[in-house]
Amino acid sequence: MRYPYEELLTVAGIGKILGITIMLETGDINRFPTVSDYSSYCRCVSSKKISNGKKKGEGNKKNGNKYLAWAYVEAANFMRRYSTPARSWHQRKASKTNKIVAIKALSNKIARACYFIIKDQKPFDPKKLFQ
């Protein structure tokens, strides 16, 4: 496997299968100029269009990679189960919204962290993710 694969395994919640899925479905990380482009490609952000507090339509909800969306939601569920900081962050988020939105928000945080792990080839630091 390639070198960033081992770095992805340092993330709590990402095992061998999810790490391989993320690496193969992401491809070359340099094709994403910013972390928000990668997060959007992973379907971790919503596609709503809001103006003046009113919903004006939906964007292209099917745009992006459904396998990366699945992988990051699975990683968020495992991270919530096995990591204490992730569990407390998820509980705070779920108390303000609902559980599904909280899982998607946690998957977005993981996707953003994995972008920098792959790009910079540095191991995961949970202190940066949950401050």
From TrEMBL:
GO terms for biological process: DNA transposition. It comes from the Bacteria. InterPro entries: Transpos_IS110, Transposase_20. GO terms for molecular function: DNA binding; transposase activity. Residues 6-85 form the Transposase IS116/IS110/IS902 C-terminal domain. PANTHER family: TRANSPOSASE FOR INSERTION SEQUENCE ELEMENT IS1111A, TRANSPOSASE-RELATED. This is Transposase IS116/IS110/IS902 C-terminal domain-containing protein.
